Amino acid sequence: MFPKVTLLSLALAAVVYGQQVGTLTAENHPQLQVQQCTSGGSCTTQSRSITLDSNWRWTHEVSSSTNCYTGNEWDTSICPDPTTCATNCALDGADYSGTYGITTSGNALTLKFVTHGPYSTNIGSRVYLLDSSGSKYQLFNLKNQEFTFDVDMSNLPCGLNGALYFIQMDADGGMARFPTNKAGAKYGTGYCDTQCPQDIKFINGQANVLNWVPSDTDVNAGTGEYGTCCSEMDIWEANSQAAAVTPHVCSGITGQTRCSGTQCGDGDERYDGFCDKDGCDFNSWRMGDQTFLGPGKTVNTNSKFTVVTQFLTSDNTTTGTLHEIRRLYVQNGKVIQNSKTTFPGISAYDSITDNFCNDQKALFGDTNSFESKGGLAAMGSAFEAGMALVMSIWDDHAVNMLWLDSDYPTDAPASQPGISRGPCATTSGQPSVVESQSGDAYVTYSNIKFGPIGSTYAH
């Protein structure tokens, strides 16, 4: 326990500095090895680390262990407004394995779904790869490059999502742009994506307390007045039954941007906001091949396999315009080419191009916000600016993950092209059920490699 004099000085400092770093739990980033490869196929190991997203962290008064946020509600006596709350409250360090079920070993990261810690029960997690400094996110530009990793999702049932993706957030977590943010990337601040999430507790160095509404279904979450938007490249959203690769882009903004009202694209205003929430997804099952990925299928999710994603440019240079995203797999030493679309009236696409996206949207009767927000060229521009690597495990309180692994929307016939996305029942995926029945679920990402096209896997 700190002496009273120290507590007073900390409290005075908080008035000046805003969103603080707590000192009650030590922050020790779990180490994770990744590899950077060259065109000759030679790969160099880099020692990196991961950090937990700030939304999962303990948020308490700077001068005590009193919670600023408990369950899904703010303490309005500590947090009467965004600035005062950021002044009064600190983000603390994390017990990665004990509280959050997050462990690393060499080049492998394992994320447990439900973890019963000493003080709480934790559901899911989201972590970021840090650079060699340990205080900034490692940013990637994957134009004319490929990104490869191994995944074991044999213990991810219907309704769960083991996600690996990139987002265009600030390398320092927003510290330079928002001086009231003193926690930064080291403590997992600055998150954004194309859903412009409004459940983020601190945005732009201020607490998202205005008009905060606790969730009716999630005891740990709520939504505030603001959301946080940026372009997003979903390399991998998957469970043992289904998988999708999906670029999403934003227009009218550059990098992480706070939104409010129509800008966030909520509800009936889904296509009026900054970002393309639907994206242009390639899900093998949804594109007509129900034999390709799953337990015992061509890509057998009962065991580990390698996922390779290639970002091809128009002139095969790192400065060219992104024009194709290709996917292939490696399992048991065998290279497996991606599945092809099988619907009549559409070409047999096996990769994501602007033509694929346009034809897919037309076939499915979907709004083509991907094209209107800039398409693949906009995705390439986001990579040029630098994108941070995110790895997570989560369940879906909005629509039970049916958009990934079942029939969605549920009021349309499954025989209609684009409705069936996986084999899971439309009654599956309810968070209360998966949290109680599949709490021991986990995903393991390992052997992350990146480099020029063809450099990261044996072929």
UniProtKB/TrEMBL annotation:
Pfam families, sorted: Glyco_hydro_7
Q: What class of enzyme is it?
A: hydrolase
Q: GO BP, one example?
A: cellulose catabolic process
Example of a GO MF term? cellulose 1,4-beta-cellobiosidase activity
Which portions of the sequence form the region Disordered? 413-433
The protein's matches in CDD domains, at most eight in alphabetical order, are given as: GH7_CBH_EG
Give EC number(s), comma-separated: 3.2.1.-
User: Which keywords, in A-to-Z order, does the entry hold?
Assistant: Carbohydrate metabolism, Cellulose degradation, Glycosidase, Hydrolase, Polysaccharide degradation, Signal
Signal peptide annotation: 1-18
So which domain of life are we looking at?
Answer: Eukaryota
Q: Which reaction does it catalyse?
A: Hydrolysis of (1->4)-beta-D-glucosidic linkages in cellulose and cellotetraose, releasing cellobiose from the non-reducing ends of the chains
What protein family does this chain belong to?
Belongs to the glycosyl hydrolase 7 (cellulase C) family.
Q: From the Swiss-Prot or TrEMBL record, give the protein name.
A: Glucanase
Q: Which organism is this entry from?
A: Guyanagaster necrorhizus
